[in-house]
FAD dependent oxidoreductase domain-containing protein
Amino acid sequence: MQLFPHAKSGQFFTSYLVDCSSYLPWLMKRYINKGGKIINKTIQSLDELYPLYDIIINCSGLHSYQLLDDKELFPARGETIRVIAPWIKQIYVQEIGEEITYILPGSKNVVLGGTCQKGNWNKEINQKDRTALFERCCQLLPSLKMATIDYNWVGLRPCRSRVRLELEPRSAHTKCRVIHNYGHGGGGITLHWGCAQTVVDLIQDLINNTAINSKL
C-alpha cells in the first residue's frame, strides 16, 4: 500500500462502466425507432393524464415530491468535474467515513467526484465543493493536476427510504392504472433494467386480467 499509505485495505476488480452521455441517447433512439412518442409538457397532477391513457408509468424521479406530494423523497446533491486525462485507464475509489472520492474514466472524459449532500436542492456549481473534490482527487492521483477541465456538473439524486416500484391501488374515480417506478437514489443506472422488467411484468399482469383498449 505504498501508493496510498493511509489506506487500511484495498481491492481491485474488473467491471462495466456505463457512459450515460452516450447510453441515454442510445436508449431514446431505440424508443423512437420502436414507435415511441415524446410530448414535452409540464403537468401539476396525474389527474391531467387519467382521461388520456389506460396505464401510466410514473418515472418522474425527484419531481414526484411535488407531483405526488411524496415527502419521503429527498435530493442528494452530487457535484462532479469532467476532465480530459486520456492517460487514466482505471477506476479509483476512496472511502473515508461517509466521504467518497472517485475517478471514473469514460469514453469522452474522466469524471471526478464527488459530493452527496442530502436535502440540498441547489443545482448551481459551488466553488468550495468543486475545489475540495478536485483536491481530494489529486491527492488520490496526483497526475490529475495536469488534466484539462472539460466541464462541471451538478445533479440531484432522487433518494427515498426505499424505491417505490408498485402498482397503485385502483381508484374509484378513474379506470386508468398507475405504476410507480422512482426513488432510486444514485443507483438508477445500476437498477434500471431490472426495475423496467418488473414494470413490464406488472403491465402484462394487468393486460392478462383487465380489458385494456390502448389510446396510444
Observations:
- The chain has two domains: 41-72+161-209, 74-159.
